[in-house]
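Why do we bother with holo predictions? Because pocket geometry can differ from the apo form. Keep that in mind while you read this record for magnesium ion.
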Amino acid sequence: MISVEEAINIILQQIRPLPPQRISFADAWGLVLAEDVYAAEPMPPFRAASVDGYALIAGDTSPTRRLVGQQSAGYVSDVEVAAGTAVRVTTGAPVPSGADAVVMLEFTEEGDGYVEIKTPLEVGSNIRPVGQDLAQGQLVLAHGASLGAPEIGLLAMVGKAEVLIYPAPRVGVMSTGDELVEPGEPVKPGQIRDSNRFSLMSAVREVGGIPIDLGKVTDEAGTLQETMARGLHQADAILTSGGVSMGQLDLVKPYLAERGTIHFGRVRAKPGKPVTFATINSVPVFAMPGFPVSALVSFEVYVRPALLKMAGHTRLDRPRRRVTLTHSVFHAAGRTEFQRAVVTREGDGRYMAVTTGLQGSGRLLSMHGANALLVLPYQQGDFPGGAEVEAIITGPFQGT
Ligand code: AMP
Ligand code: MG
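The structure, written out:
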């Protein structure tokens, strides 16, 4: 059996960022930039007033100025400022030539055809010089930048209508098992509702992927093969859950061995020992165990970094913290165990962890409200209260 770290390395060696595509910048939120973006023009492109007021000459000492015109944002008039005169301007208006300062409306009083200045003046005040915010030719966003709200605004600002990005990975998700019924259907004796398909499709969304619902397949080779073929046709990656254990009806591994290449099929981890990674014609297939916690923890540990890499991200790992256990934790040595926990940051800077109760692989409630996975190393057994362990931080800290 390989370690968790080895498994992640094997996966990331196989995964490449998806081929970049050119799309409208307004559709690029949440994606990663696949080119450098420069400012073709300076910003602001002209000397702009930063307040409503009067454009004038600062060195001119007369307390009243003759009003010679008005300049509003969005317009350029040929009005000029000379000694003893002023031009009314609005925020964002080009500062008329001749003027070297703008005085705020609040420090003036306008009369009939003149304005009185009630504050000392300084050259350049309330004028945003050309290129103050972006110099012409400046690198604005580099290849690899994540496009959030400010970045989309920057693309709009520099007039980058079309942008080269790494597309979001389309991820086909299927469940396997004769016992599974759709959540809305009545449950007959021996059956349970399919939950993995829905938790995994949501997990795909949470990392910016596009889930494709491939439905559920029975424990029979024909339906698996048909659904896989459909998935390979539509998706950049495939997730399955269930059917990777050692049972007679666990058909996923034999299928992957026959149709593709299995890169590993067992990891020294709990939950998620039978997690299997394969490629079929270089499409990655992540076959996860059926227990609801095993499936989601396996997603977090193995699938999340892979999907981020496909989407062009270079930061693939979650932040980690050393946390102090507030109670003893049972852990059998031999496998790296991921226990779900709530971590709070204390006033003294320490991080304290409480596990979310019983940690059974079927108890999905153990993931509800958790913001961390404690990483209990395989070399060591039980941990006493007060011990420090490493935690993968999956959500915002609780408390203060
Ligand atoms: P398996 O990995 O197929 O042996 O399944 C392990 C356990 O997980 C069994 O108790 C299954 O009934 C359960 N299970 C498998 N698939 C799902 C699913 N999609 N949703 C909820 N539970 C599942
Ligand atoms: Mg099964």
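The radius of gyration is 31 Å.
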